[in-house]
Design brief:
6 copies of one chain form a homohexamer. The first copy, chain A, is 73% helix and 0% strand. By secondary structure, the first copy, chain A, is mainly α. Chains A and B meet through α3, α4 and α6 of A and α3, α4 and α6 of B.
Chain lengths: 132, 132, 132, 132, 132, 132
């Protein structure tokens, strides 16, 4: 049962937000809407959030690659919020820009041109996160 | 431009087919239907196949993880043929069973219970491939 | 042939808009864009709208549960406009907040974490509609 | 927190299988493949199965309607196994054939003609389950 | 209101079935399952079938191109039955094999490699239909 | 190999932007985000863009109908950016408004009511493009 260790993040959400305005606004909106969900205190939603959290821990597959996998499937399923989230998480775990681009390429080829509008928005975020 | 080196496979398609009857039948059907597509010699299809091939080469991300990413997005998009293909490719590149299961878990949590029927069929293949 | 009686709404669109700013803006935008569609007077579109209307009438299944079903499938297919629409319709038919949350939970478990961004926005609307 | 009471089934899986050959084969295959998944004993899969189970218990919404909701979203997402499963569960909880058909109609109108091949297979199952 | 004239088919279903075994089996199964749906005589299903029929009539866009459009969206949404149906309808309206392949290419590029398993099966049908 | 001739556009992007404010803003945003993608100079992305371009050239099927096919599958897969893009391209190739509406109708019937919010936004663009 190797799926259970918290990963070590190289950057906090705050540091990510200082590097990228797109990231900052995404994190802020997500946090505001999530506080609303937490207040509702729905039993199954909380369990799902918990399950979700456990999925991306260090395990047989390093957390960085799991976040990149989350990116691939999010881009394949065309969910901008999910794409933003996993790009940020991958960045926080030390993924390089070429790694992020290769992950997005898997989604592009598997998911087709319908992924391109999401790829464009993803690159806007990558540009900010990986600028010097 | 790191995305361009052919990966080294630990097993041939033939060896995979000897290990698993499900894999053997999948490879055979796929090969038979593909020969039909090749005969048609459609310019764009050939270019797409070529692009597809290039996506999974060794690069910034090791080929094994790219195949596992292909597995995650295939399971998230619920394509049994694609799932079978990427499980076999990951196996040929040395992915362990826990790695395959963790990849499928990302798809399960991202894609939901609708993924479960595909997970069941994926586990039948894993069972054969990773049996002693 | 039980599918043919108009349901009785507890609240008008106007009342819903007074309770929730999110609902008010949604109803307004939808109405403005729809007037454009109506002007075009496309035969098949009109028939589809009519068919759509007939689907949610009182029948073997009470209209309230049909609207909640519309909510579940809309959330599973990840369509924010459709989610907003069916939350409002369910509210107008007397659905309680726990009923709305349980319906969304079915979509969350069936559709996976990719549903979460939509769930967050749905809860923002629920919060306004069901506030004291 | 109303989502927690096991529903009372009017029929066992065995009785369903005696009524419908399609159902019998579905239940058998599903059970065989699931035993394989259970053997793997994957922590996250088990938690997901558990969460899934909790979603359809008696709560603010009666279990019968939740199963019909599961049917609607399964048909909307076009998953034959899931459709079969929820038709059987709804049947076991006393759903009538008109209720099943109305639920499928919601999926048909929301999901479009792409749902029709699944509707056809669903009706074959309904025909067997609700025959005199 | 130009959408209302029945197209002229070059071949009957029977002739298609004599040319292709895959087509023959598809038409037979579809017809058998449909007779079951017709027997149920569901009001909304009948109206949906009628609407569906009206969508592909001769109009501003010739029926042949509409059937090819049906093929593109069916392949993009990955529905084998729908793909088979629209390939056969396009064939009956005189579409050439290059036209069918180009239509499938639009779906391949828009929908990505996930379309490939369906493309393979589509080519098996094309091979039979367009053989000398 | 008929798929290779550039189509002749009746209108430039600039002319389209002067006719429709919605189109102008779409073209501008797309262009700005694309310049970012081009700067990244990713090998596979460039090849995909190239393949995408080749898909819609004059061939066995006239370019106008291919763009309308792109519209149908984009609407069926519910991608607003893609819908806008193909409506504009079809317009530039001389598609009439009834042709655009019939193409959208195929997507509506195949994809269901979930397509309606996208249809509404598409009609807003059509209204501007085809106004006197």
């Amino acid at each position: 049962m190797p799926e259970r260790k918290e990963p070590t993040y190289l950057f906090s959400d705050k540091q990510v937000g200082e590097k990228s305005e797109i990231a900052r606004r995404f994190i802020e909106t997500r946090s505001r809407l999530n506080s609303n969900v937490e207040k509702a205190d729905n039993f199954l939603v909380k369990r799902f959030y918990n399950l979700d959290h456990n999925t991306y821990l260090e395990g047989a597959i390093p957390a960085k690659y799991k976040e990149l996998m989350g990116l691939v499937v999010s881009a394949g399923l065309r969910c901008d919020d999910c794409i933003h989230y996993h790009i940020i998480q991958s960045y926080r775990l030390g993924a390089t820009r070429p790694e992020q681009e290769e992950a997005i390429n898997v989604a592009l080829v598997v998911g087709g041109s319908i992924v391109i509008p999401h790829l464009r928005r993803a690159y806007a975020l990558l540009e900010e996160l990986y600028s010097a």
